[in-house]
């Protein structure tokens, strides 16, 4: 099964929900799809909810994804976009390798295990309280 994105622009940020099975190739493809959506909307903050994804990325896949994402953002029309990722283990790496790789290459990104913390870090509020599911 491939990864699929549901992209919904809110007033202050882009909400992206991902479902499917993780693969590095699919993650790269959907990241570019997400960047295209960011370029079409007047927001520079993204809440990526990947709790609907399954899989267990290898260490090098985490490295390559972080590297790819940072390079793609730097080369895009929206290089200063802030990304908050909400993931569950095993996709959420407790050592945050992919995050560290991307941050070290200039990307504004942070991973979380709940949506509430991600929204706080992004400095945005959900449209309504039912959207603030923290995944706990």
Structure description:
This protein is an alpha/beta fold and 136 residues long. The protein has one domain: 2-Layer Sandwich (Transcription Regulator spoIIAA), CATH 3.30.750. Helices cover 36% and strands 25% of the residues. Strand 2 (14-21), helix 1 (24-40) and strand 3 form a beta-alpha-beta unit. Helix 1 (24-40) runs parallel beside helix 2 (59-74) and helix 2 packs parallel to helix 3 (97-104). It is globular and about 35 Å long. Residues 129-136 have low confidence and may be disordered.
What characteristics describe this protein?
136 residues; 4 helices; disordered C terminus; Transcription Regulator spoIIAA; alpha/beta
Helix-strand blueprint:
Layout: E1 4-9, E2 14-21, H1 24-40, E3 45-54, H2 59-74, E4 82-86, H3 97-104, E5 108-112, H4 115-122
Parallel strand pairs: 2-3, 3-4, 4-5
Antiparallel strand pairs: 1-2
Short description:
The protein is of the alpha/beta class. Helices cover 36% and strands 25% of the residues. It has one domain: 2-Layer Sandwich (Transcription Regulator spoIIAA), CATH 3.30.750.
Strand order of the largest sheet: 1-2-3-4-5
- How many strands, what sense, and barrel or not for the largest sheet? 5 strands, mixed
With helices defined by DSSP (H or I, 4 residues minimum), what is the helix count? 4
Distance between the termini: 26 Å
- How many domains, as an integer? 1
Class derived from helix and strand content: alpha/beta
């Amino acid at each position: 099964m491939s990864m699929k994105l549901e992209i919904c622009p809110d007033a202050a940020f882009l909400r992206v929900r991902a479902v499917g099975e993780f693969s590095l190739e699919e993650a790269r493809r959907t990241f570019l799809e997400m960047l295209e959506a960011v370029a079409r909307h007047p927001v520079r903050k993204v809440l990526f909810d990947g709790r609907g994804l399954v899989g267990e990325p290898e260490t090098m896949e985490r490295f390559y994804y972080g590297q790819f994402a940072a390079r793609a953002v730097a080369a895009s029309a929206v290089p200063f976009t802030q990304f908050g990722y909400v993931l569950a283990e095993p996709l959420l790496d407790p050592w945050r390798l992919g995050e560290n790789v991307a941050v070290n290459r200039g990307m504004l990104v942070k991973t979380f295990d709940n949506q509430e913390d991600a929204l706080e870090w992004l400095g945005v509020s959900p449209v309504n309280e039912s959207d603030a599911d923290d995944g706990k």
